[in-house]
Description:
The structure holds two protein chains of two kinds. Chain A is 33% helix and 40% strand. Chain A is α+β, with helices and mostly antiparallel strands. Chain A has two domains: 23-214, Macroglobulin (MG2) domain (Immunoglobulin-like, Sandwich), CATH 2.60.40.1930; 215-254. In chain A, the strands form three sheets. In chain A, strands 2-12-11-4-7-8 form a six-stranded mixed beta sheet. Chain B is mainly alpha-helical. Chain B has one domain (2-145, 153-292). Chain B contains eleven helices and five strands. Chain B has a two-stranded antiparallel sheet with strand order 1-2. Classes of the chains: A alpha+beta, B mainly alpha. The interface between A and B is large, with 65 and 59 residues. Strand 5 (73-84) of chain A pairs antiparallel with strand 5 (299-303) of chain B, so a sheet runs across the interface.
Amino acid sequence: MKRNLALALIAPAALLLGGARAPILVPEISQHKVEVRQGFTGADLLLFGAILDPGGTRAAQDYDIVVVLKGPVQSIVLREKRKVAGIWINAASSELRSAPSFFAIASSRPVREIVDDKTAAIYELGLDRLQLSPIGAIDPARQRHFADGLVDLMQRQGLYREDGHGVTISGQVLYQARITLPSQVRTGTYTAETFAIRQGRVITSAVTRVDVSKQGFERFVADQAEGNGLLYGLFAVVVSVAMGWIAGRLFALV
Amino acid sequence: MDVYLPIANLAVNGLVIVGLGALTGLLSGMFGVGGGFLTTPLLIFYGVPPTVAAASAASQVTGASVSGAFAHARRGGIDYHMGAVLVAGGVLGTGIGALLFRLLQSLGQIDTVINILYVLLLGGIGGLMAHESLSALRAQRRGLAQPARRRRHHPLVASLPLRWRFYRSGLYISPLAPLLLGMATGILTMLMGIGGGFILVPAMLYILGMSTNVVVGTSLFQILFVTMATTMMHALTTHAVDIVLAGLLLVGSVSGAQVGAQFAQKAKPEQLRLILAVIVLGVALRMALGLGYRPDEIFTVVPL
């Protein structure tokens, strides 16, 4: 506790000192547009870049890199099943204002070894550090319980990931991390945030964006289903009747 | 063969979906049930969101019943008069079902209600069918002439006012009975994503007392129109009909339905009913276990 307090006092001062000599972080991402088209089975994103000393002349020393790719946030109801009278039914729920639809974090070392709890919480470094903004007054233990439940659920679906050795740094200049988007990702604007961390402090960070959107036929179908329900429904009915009818005719010939 | 489903937001193996469609189509043609009671749970198991699964399964059942209904129409196996009354009830039922669906969804109990309904209905009807077909088969084996089942409608049906003649069904009963029956299946179609055939067929036999040779055809006829109404209802309210998913299911199911209808003509009805009973009981048992055992994942996410 005492150490934390000391750290909290020193940190701003150190930040001021360090601020003037922040290293240069040049992040890049293999593609800024992910197009969801027919046959889309997910995308492999390469997040890479370079970190240089303030002068920009030589490699920076002893930095840890953390890369976070975060999907659009959504408001959700998280329900928990409990056993009531012999059967499992939804018994408790929590409303969360800002649950990311996708969250992948990769770091050069496990986050716990790089930063302390407080810093991790500030920058949302780690799956157990997500700021989910629960609605209403919920006691911390319950909140923790639901947050763990969400993370477990999303991890199983491949939508939340944490890789403590996912970033490789070569020659102390170049870093790279590979993050896979599964096919069931939501469309929207994703943010890729890169943090350079030294001695437990975030020295510098940079954000790039990735736009995930449906294109072509997929986009047309999604737009029609959402905005043109009557025609879309009629079309679906006509298609199903026609296919059934054609099959009936064909088999009658056989 | 990877296919991306634009509404379900998911890549699936197209061949698996076509195969699933073929399986349910086969059931549809053979027994006159929609097959939705298998499609919906299997799609959910495959990772398709539940609402999308139910909505798209409905249009698949439409396709399967068209080709099945055509096959039966050629044999004169549809009582259109009875069918029209059932459809009217069914469309009313989908409306009520949509309201119930929304109510249960906001309470967070839709999944539990659906599962309990599955267990009760499938278990009850499956048990009834199994018992009946087993005793029929046993009687046959002993060489006894199968006692002709007295075809008569339930006493309650007789007490309803107003009587119409349904010539092909060989009935003179109140139209309120099929209307209420149609309504009940309409509600279940919307709630459970099923065609309702496995309830309709036994109800037509044992409650209405319809003549056996028009039961399957008429049930397909009713399912056809009620699933069309369900597809429209979903397209307008939940926006969850995935045309690509439905198309894949359709390719399999329309051909499966044709093959099934031809099987049905060759096989013995008692055996057919026993097979259906076993499948239905199997699904019911699986659902019952699902309710009782600790689920793999106790948390679920719903958009606010």
